[in-house]
Amino acid sequence: MNFSIREIPLLRWLPFFTLGIILGQYFQSFEQFFIYLLSLSILLIAYLVTTEYLNVNNSHFYRTIPMAFLFVFSGMLLCWTQNKNIDRQISNAKCFIGKTSKIIRQTNSLSIVECDIIGYCQGQKLISLHSPVKSILFVKTADRLDIENHVLAFCATLHFIHNSIQIPMKNPIEEYWKKNGIQFTAYLTEDKYQVLYKDEHVFDRFIRITRQYFVSIIESISHDKYVTGLLQAMVLGYKNQLDPDAKKLFTKTGVIHVLAVSGLHVGIIYLFLSWILKLKRNQVNAAWKIILLIFILFLYAMITGFSPSVSRAVLMFSFMRIGELFGKKVHTLNALAFSAFIILIYNPTELFQLGFQLSYFAVLSIVIFYPAIYGLLFFKNTILDKLWSLTAVSLAAQIGTFPWALYVFHQFPVYFILSNWVTIPLSTLLVLLTFVYLLFSKIFLIKNVVSSILTNCIYLLKYVLGQIEKLPYSVLEGFYLSGLEFVLLITTIFFLGYFVLFKKTMYLNIVLALILVILTSVNLRIFENSKYQMSSIYHFQKNLFLHFVKNRSQIIITDIKPDKIHKIHFYLNEFNLQHGIKNTLLFSLDSIESNSIWENDTSGKFPKIIFYRQFLKYDTVTFFFFKRSMPIYLNELPKEDGKSRLKTDFLVVLSYRSDLINWIKYLQPRKIVVTARVNLFDSSKFFNKFEKRLYLLNDSILNINMSNTSK
Known about the structure:
Layout: H1 9-26, H2 30-53, H3 60-82, E1 95-106, E2 110-122, E3 125-140, E4 150-155, E5 159-160, H4 172-179, E6 184-188, E7 193-198, H5 202-219, H6 225-236, H7 244-252, H8 263-277, H9 283-303, H10 308-325, H11 332-346, H12 354-374, H13 382-407, E8 411-413, H14 416-439, H15 444-470, E9 475-477, H16 483-502, H17 505-531, E10 534-540, E11 543-550, E12 553-558, H18 568-579, E13 583-588, E14 598-599, E15 609-612, E16 615-618, E17 621-626, E18 650-653, H19 660-667, E19 671-675, H20 684-689, E20 694-697, E21 701-703
Parallel strand pairs: 3-6, 12-13, 17-18, 18-19, 19-20
Antiparallel strand pairs: 1-2, 1-4, 2-3, 4-7, 5-6, 8-9, 10-11, 10-21, 11-12, 14-15, 15-16, 16-17
Helix pairs in contact: 1-3, 1-11, 2-3, 5-6, 7-15, 8-9, 8-10, 9-10, 10-11, 11-12, 12-13, 13-14, 13-16, 14-15, 16-17
């Protein structure tokens, strides 16, 4: 594939536009935006001075600079205007008006709903917001609730999803919400909200009813929820009934992409409709048929929820068909860039969605690398040639999505080619037959035959993927990339693509240099992890954590109840991968409340730790946990070195009571750590007295200096 970059102008300017969106997301205040605008103006003035007065040759490179800055500026302005600052009063309000947009997940007792807050109450006044504030509502109900596209009045405390402090615990779900513009969460019971009215346009209602109708038809295919849930996800993008085991299986075998409505589905509909319409050479006829074709494709995109992958495919098909109608051959890369521009102009935050990134990089990679990979081998046999073509597509797509497999999923499916050999043909057949079933579900004979084929195909797909998953080393897990390494890897693939397209040795040299930089960075991190140590106290989701890391092992002490402590592993995954943690030991503070001394296993994996009632000794540091109810009294305190006073490094106040001062005088703590649960109003005198030794543990982290402790 040889062509000039001037043949793909839209793709040429797209990176600058996306860079502007990223900068706009980073510089969110007007002051920061003004500083950037001023800097841009200075650079443009400098450019004009250089070209006009210093007689610099106005080459193509210099002519590109103003356009590049223009696209960066446009992307930033677009992002900034659509992400206005939140009215500060909203976080203090208790009553709100919101419009629900979609139900994310639903069970018989809980509905997780995306809601746009459009107003709030301040005293007796109802204040409207200039722009809606995206929020997630957790609504507890007795039965399943249909509140999609409804306006609600509700009373709740909004929990701001802020940029959390640098603590080891991370909630992947909240991180995902933040990237998608969600700013608050709220929890509602049945007595805390009231449905005011349904706010739904006629066309929206038509789309919703149509989607529900198709969902109900697919449910009639089989009594097995595994089968119907999989088909609903593959054909309609409806994942509310998708079996978690199915999602896990498809992820581990490297074929999760078939569960997303994508270009495959649009392509099947396009070919099917093109065959029905039988486009003729007559321009008038062809024009009306293309308009009808595009309308049906957009209708399908609406029914499936306008996911990034299906939006991309519909826009690309539309752009290319309109171009052909006017006698213009549209380059695939230009069509790809056009669809990206349209989606990002409508909603700039789509850039930060995983689905958008994977969809575009997979297609971009296929367009660039597939011809080169396919051309490496030639088969006269048709079956072998088709198999090699499918392999080339899988390899090309994997090159583009490889950075996300390591950075987001921290794993790599080894047998993805084998999985795709089976999954792509079967999924194509499943999608095609499901469309046939939707069209002819009223005809008894066709309905029974097609439903039987669909069910058996799903079982076959499940069995084959299950066998592939059981193969040795089917999934390589435990990968970690830093943000910089992730960006460098994407940049490497970009330059590799440039080398494939333009055959310039310079690009290959850059690729090799970038690979060397990435490997150096990874090895440096591995070396640093071998020496990494951490001792800290912090809050996460209203719970206290004492976190100690040494020799790639960690000990965590928390006030979470013993029966729920296992959930911590979910929030620690990112931290463990980043620092190469091999061993984890979890303790609940409830286990400290014992009259006997307990010591952990000192086999070498973990430093020595001792529990005795409210005391905890880790290495050379002593902690005492003070709360309202304690199984210990001052006269029962253990002695050390014959002295009646036991010095404590950290006194952690979990709740306040009147004799706290006596305990402080006796224990003489170096630091008094007060958790967020302590009522500051009731204990204000105490805080004033010990202000110098006090540390309020709200949204902060206290790092412990192990070298300066009482031994």
